[in-house]
Amino acid sequence: MAGDGFGRRDFLRVAASAPVLGVGGGAASAQLAQGVVAAQNERPSWFRADAPVMRFRQVHLDYHTSEKILGIGADFDPEAFAATLQKARVNSITCFGRCHHGLIYFDSEKHPERVHPHMKQKSLLMEQIEACHKRDIRVPIYLTIQWDYLTAQREPQWLTVDEKGASRQELYTPGFYGNLCVNTPYRDFLKVHIAELFEKVPVDGLFLDIVQIRECSCPWCRRAMIAKNMDPSNAAQRRDYAGTMIYDFKREMTAFIRGLSKDCTIFYNAGHIGPKHRPVKDAYTHWELESLPSGGWGYMDFPLKARYTRGLDIDTLGMTGKFHTSWGDFHSLKNQPALEYECFQMLALNAKCSVGDQLHPRGVLDAAAYDLIGKVYTQVEAKEPWCAGARGLADIGVLTPEEFLGGEARRIPDSAFGAVRMLTELATQFDVIDSQFDFSRYKLIVLPDEIPVNDALREKLEEFVGAGGSLIVSHESGLNPAKTAFNLPSLGLEYVGEAVFSPDFLVVQGGEMARGLSPAEYVMYQKGAEVRLRGAQELVKTNVPYFNRTWEHFCSHRHTPSEFKYGYPGVTRNGRVIYFMHPVFAQYQQNAPRWVKQLVGNAIEALLPQPLVRVKAPSSAMVALNEQAAARRLVLHLLHYIPERRGQAFDVIEDVIPLHNVEASVLVDGAVRAVRLAPQGTVLPHRMEGGRAVFTVPQVNGHQMVSIERG
Length: 711
Description:
alpha/beta; TIM Barrel; Rossmann fold; Immunoglobulin-like; nine-stranded mixed β-sheet; eight-stranded parallel β-sheet; disordered N terminus
């Protein structure tokens, strides 16, 4: 089976004329090909073109279940299963067709050796779907892709191979994390498997899990690279090919699935969703943002993703979990305030909600888990009318450094997280954007710390500034890709190089940058960039220490104090462009100096004197403004939940601390007919001042929406 290039053949032609190489062998007959063609031409009766697609209250029901566990589905009652979901106000649930163990949960004739050997039902999946459809609960189907333990054991030649020729399968580590290469005959197995799924059960949608860029040196990848005049021994070229190959795989699979269904939703899960997904966006029907804050993602991960995907014109679904930690945490429950915050933040950032759960092997949903989910989803259901069809409003666009990272970056840079954290705490209205976004949608664009500017981006940014837009630029942002000189004339600066001293000190002594800060020198922990003024004005100067800390020169425990001696410009302004010499956003992500946030906030206020929203609330509040154009209203979301670090690097939300008498004002184009609490309907007194609707929210008990109804 290895080495014959089978994985690149056209599936339908091969299915009709040649053996299909799948786990356990067997042949694909002409009947299969005929069945696929028939499925392309005849829409099964269970497809409903008018059925809603992306719903607000979803569950992702994991079922990765060992072949060594008996009694699979032994206690499953389809009516009780669906009734539990309905009571919890769930209206879509992703159920399993094939799990990471490589086991199938429907009646497979093509791969009977893969059906879970201890499944009591002929098709557990079919019984789940039928019971849910009776209650108008949608059932997308989960299929694993690159993690498949059974396939990895039986067909090890299909595993990805590193540059030393070793497969990426840890033989003696518990888990199913060996990565399969979809450039092998495994691709054709997947097509046979998916085609049979459509024959066997109604398919509302597909969640195709673990479809990631994996550098590989297997025979199929090496031959394909050579055919493209690429060098398999070159690591950079292997990475480039891996990205191209996985994009081609997604496009090919989507075209194949569209031959089976015109309506089913399609999503490929690769963990993080960011700018690298833009080139293959058309292979997706929507985004699902897997982000379990307590499971390693953290509370800044989802807003970073959601503020980006909401600008890509397809629906977004947020995904957290009911688990205390992460996936597979059986018999645990998340604190209700934490699940509320995670779901309500999804609504505020224009996403639908999905809560991850894992079904017990015996097939019974955990009553306590669905009591928890129901308590939150009952509230989500009441809020939906103010969220359906809403779009986020923003006056700030933050260019994400992710776009400019080479290769397959596995870590989101601190500058990205720091910008999201800081601007959220400042209650600003912002999107995370890439260079292909329409800049004219924003009044201010932020280039955090490490945004290289090539000639195309320079022209776009300069045009933006020329049309009246503003920029905040920090550290190495604005440099040409070689990092030798600034490529952004509107900065009015010359790049000298890395600052000689670190840490150094910003001297705040009045002026527009001093609001909220005592006159003082403020340490800047991370090394900055030395610049010279070439038309820009110095807003804040930098003093330097006596010397850098080395084994020969050191003072006290940490760093040398200021010598009160001028070093170089620290913060500069050239018209509508403000520059910080330090990596202020990465610094804020690292240890959150308040003075850094205050300085950036002062810069925003100087460049954006009339923001969309102003609130008088603590920095722990999260504020988002949306528009429902059809309903002629703006909807302001106010959230106040405080993640607290408990345990080792573990953030927990346990208590809800209400806010009282929150003063807010919103920039409104035109008259305002009424301001109401939503969903309560309570009318709030308001007044208009300088084009702003001004009102006070009596209480924010976790999450409060305010509907601003236009005249």
